[in-house]
Amino acid sequence: MAKAELQKAIAEERSSDRSSDKSAEDADGLHSQTRDELYETAKDMEISGRSTMKKDELVEAIQQEEGA
Description:
Elements: H1 3-20, H2 22-31, H3 35-44, H4 55-67
């Protein structure tokens, strides 16, 4: 297999891995947000107790609410 074909195959595999695992993408997206951004998302979702939550707690609460 030529180098270019191998690189293309690797890129396609990585792309399919990402698209098949949406929950991992969502988690990565949430972790890349600031605590204030997460707080606003939690506020929009009407998650109670959000004002005292740390960043990781907000991520978890948002994930749970989205899965509910």
